[in-house]
Amino acid sequence: MRSNGPAIFVAFLMSFVLTSPALAKTTHHPPPSDAATPGALPMLGEGDAQLRKIEAEIDALTPAPRPEADIGKRLAAWAAASGDNDERPFMVVDKLGARVFAFDAEGRLLGSAPVLVGLAPGDDSAPGIGDLALAAISPDERTTPAGRFDAAFGPSNGHGMVLWVDYADGIGLHPVITTNPAEHRLERIKSPSPAEHRISFGCINVPAKFYADFVQKQFAAGGVVYILPDTKPLDEVFPAFAATASADAEDAAAISQQDRCADGPTEIPDRIADPRPPLTCSDDAPTIETSATR
């Protein structure tokens, strides 16, 4: 929620709000709680049918198939090469892998860390969620949106300065919030299971050291945050990048075919049969053009 102020200032502040996260906003954090839950890390859906449904959806998505195993790194390389990052530092958040990767303006990897993200799967924020009280946000609305975001530092109500990823919807990137001990966020962020990293109201929680070493230092003047989807197709969220990735895959397949023809058939005893279809090769076959030669 934005800070309350006299109505006379509303008109004056509107244009400022539209271009900068300068007004304090309540981040999507849970209210403080003194009721810590001892023992093992609680399952997300414990005692709640709606949360059980969300947990099942997360299990179905994790791990999810990727067009490339290193999709985050490929997106980073594309962002720097294409200039999509506007010569600014940027981060790639992989929700399904529960990790964030920080890069400088030229695309060099600065560091990586585990993250906590929104409780529910989904790549869009609920309409108007940034102006809702936390208690009014239902579990299935606690999503971390996917896409490209221009991020900038700004104040929040009660949590100091945070890197606002999507100010309008109250999505920030900040150190792990520990105001509700029952959520075990510090334990969750260390878990090897990506499903355990689903706990926030939509904000991206990172380790305090990663935040101090990379976010505060490298993103002091702002930057770009790319959040990979967990439910939408990649080409719907990043169409330009997806088209490039598809062309690269076609090139790799074409080059592989050329190499196989050049090498010729190989007989290896006790070898599992090559699952690829047989090739028809000829001595005068033309060289296959790839995007690098077009």
What are the main properties of this structure?
disordered C terminus; disordered N terminus; 10 strands; two-stranded parallel ribbon; 294 residues
How would you describe this structure to a colleague?
The chain is an alpha/beta fold and 294 residues long. The chain has seven helices and ten strands. It is globular, with a radius of gyration of 23 Å. The longest helix is centred in the C-terminal third of the chain and has 25 residues, at 239-263. An eight-stranded mixed β-sheet has the order 3-2-1-10-5-6-7-9, with helices on both faces. Strand 2 (99-103) and strand 3 (109-114) form a beta hairpin. Helix content is 27%, strand content 18%.
Indicate the topology.
Blueprint lengths: L9 H10 L29 H13 L9 H12 L7 E5 L4 E5 L5 E6 L2 E2 L28 E10 L3 E7 L4 E5 L9 H4 L9 E3 L3 E3 L1 H11 L4 E6 L5 H4 L1 H25 L31
Parallel strand pairs: 1-10, 4-8, 7-9
Antiparallel strand pairs: 1-2, 2-3, 5-6, 5-10, 6-7
Give the mean pLDDT: 75
- This entry's quaternary arrangement is single chain
Low-confidence stretches: 1-23, 30-46, 266-276, 285-294
Class derived from helix and strand content: alpha/beta
Give the tally of β-strands: 10
Cα-atom Rg, whole angstroms? 23 Å
Anisotropy-based shape: globular
Biggest sheet statistics: 8 strands, mixed
User: Strand share of the residues?
Assistant: 15-25%
The helix tally amounts to: 7
The percent of residues in helical segments reads 25-40%
- Strand order, sheet with most strands: 3-2-1-10-5-6-7-9
String of helices and strands: HHHEEEEEEEHEEHEHH
Termini separation: 52 Å
